[in-house]
Design goal:
Largest sheet of chain B: 5 strands, mixed
Strand order of the largest sheet of chain B: 3-2-1-4-5
Number of strands of chain A: 7
Distance between the termini of chain A: 25 Å
Order of helices and strands of chain B: HEHEHEHEEHHHEH
Helix content of chain A: 25-40%
CATH class of chain B: Alpha Beta
CATH architecture of the largest domain in chain A: Sandwich
Strand content of chain A: over 45%
Strand content of chain B: 5-15%
Oligomer: heterodimer
Largest interface: A-B, 22 and 29 residues
Low-confidence stretches of chain B: 199-215
Chain lengths: ~140, ~300
């Protein structure tokens, strides 16, 4: 068993995750990437999506990431996200409503900015729902 | 001299005022604790962000982002004025407004000034002086708010900066130092002053050998692109930080104001009580004189 890497997910409100992980897989803007201990130093932006990590006990856990940045050091991964939620914290009914709202807005097709915003909202909602539906 | 009844009524009414002010003090102090907590919760994010930003800022060129470039001619200036929504917090709002006013008089005499207002007090002042308001956000300072307020308002400012609607943006807010001390600060946020100054958050955190390893970061996408993405975020962070600090300062200010008011009430009650006792004593003496006088007359 390889050694653990320290994972920290910070948002302006609080630290969402701060613990040891065996592996961290993040939604990088250029594609998903996995990190183990001893990874080279690396900095990238993140898309909206799910972060997967195996905690110290080997249990697979998921965190919703609303875009941001990730700094990888050999023994530590820091995720800076504007917002992030662990799977258990996701409010599924709310995400569901957000999805319906965004879809409605997209079908109405008003100005460009609205579409961008609605698309982002839809993406957030879909990813949140996807994470809650993982068995 | 006031009658007994009058003094009595005054004492009762001041006692009631005292009850209110001391309750407000309690409320303010509990809110202050909440605001301080969110300020502390924000610190790790801000300092880490500053650290990362500082590390790539060194690598990127001056023209990495249009937000770094000053306009050739500065005509239109936007001021983000952070004040509270509610009063009864001593000179808090008037001091902030005075700071902004002085700044305009000294530095922005011949410029076209517009405002982005957080808080009702600042907005009311801008309206009264008939200056223009670009955006206003109420029910933010002093209450519960999240990062989205800062990012939406910041986004609007960045857009108007890029579209030449404004040439410079300043932030006026109250920096929370201790409960007894708040500093009123003016900070330029657009164009971004210079990359070296921006990393001031970093200095506060422990600067363990990060300059060594950060220099070797592999960046994906390129450091210029990353910097371009991070700089707007950094502006949101500054706005959010200002809002948090102003909220905390507001509660601290109100707490102190209410404490003083409660003390003033106590003093007044003491004073009135003395008057009350004296008046009552005088009344009794006068009554006694009457009785004694009457008895004397009967005996006579």
């Amino acid at each position: 068993m390889a050694e653990n890497i320290f994972l920290e997910v910070v948002t302006p409100d609080k630290a969402v995750v701060s613990e040891e992980a065996q592996i961290v897989v993040s939604p990088g803007s250029e594609g998903e990437f996995g990190v183990l201990k001893g990874h080279t130093t690396f900095l990238t932006s993140l898309k909206i999506g799910k972060l997967r990590f195996n905690d110290a006990n080997g249990k697979e856990r998921y965190v919703f990431i609303n875009g941001g940045f990730s700094e990888v050091l050999p023994n530590k991964v820091t995720i800076l996200a504007e917002s992030a939620e662990q799977r258990t914290e996701i409010d599924a009914p709310r995400a569901d409503q957000a999805k319906i709202r965004a879809e409605k807005r997209l079908s109405e097709k008003s100005s460009d900015i609205d579409i961008l915003r609605a698309e982002a909202a839809l993406r957030r909602a879909l990813h949140r729902l996807k994470i809650t539906n993982i068995q | 001299m006031a009658t007994l009844k009058e003094v009595q009524t005054k004492i009762v009414s001041i006692k009631k005022t005292k009850q209110i002010t001391s309750a407000m003090k309690m409320v303010a102090s509990s809110r202050l604790r909440g605001a301080q907590n969110s300020m502390n919760a924000f610190k790790p994010y801000a300092s880490k962000f500053g650290e990362v930003l500082g590390s790539i800022a060194g690598k990127a060129g001056e023209d990495a982002s249009p937000l770094l470039i000053s306009k050739e001619e500065v005509k239109k200036v936007n001021i983000i004025l952070c004040t509270s929504d509610r009063g009864l917090c001593g000179g808090f709002n008037s001091n902030l407004i005075e700071k902004a006013e002085k700044f305009i008089k000294s530095k922005l005499q011949d410029k076209e000034v517009s405002f982005t207002c957080f808080g009702k007090k600042g907005r009311d002042w801008v309206k009264k002086t008939q200056m223009s308001i670009q955006n206003e956000y109420l029910n933010v300072v002093g209450g519960k708010f999240d990062f989205t307020v800062a990012s939406t308002s910041g986004k609007k400012l960045i857009d108007s900066f890029l579209n030449n609607v404004v040439d410079e943006v300043y932030l006026v807010f109250s920096e929370f130092q201790t409960i007894a001390r708040q500093e009123f600060v003016i900070k330029q946020i657009l164009p971004i002053p210079s990359l070296e100054n921006m990393t001031d958050i970093k200095e506060k955190t422990d600067t363990k050998d990060n300059s060594v390893y950060l220099a070797e970061h592999i960046c994906e996408p390129s450091s210029d692109v990353l910097l371009g993405e991070m700089l707007p975020k950094n502006i949101y962070i500054q706005i959010y930080d200002a809002l948090l600090q102003t909220s905390t300062s507001e509660h601290a200010s109100r707490m102190r104001a209410m404490e003083n008011a409660t003390k003033a009430c106590e003093d007044m009650i003491d004073e009135l009580q003395t008057i009350f006792n004296k008046t009552r004593q005088a009344g009794i003496t006068a009554d006694l004189m009457d009785i004694v006088g009457g008895a004397e007359a009967l005996n006579g």
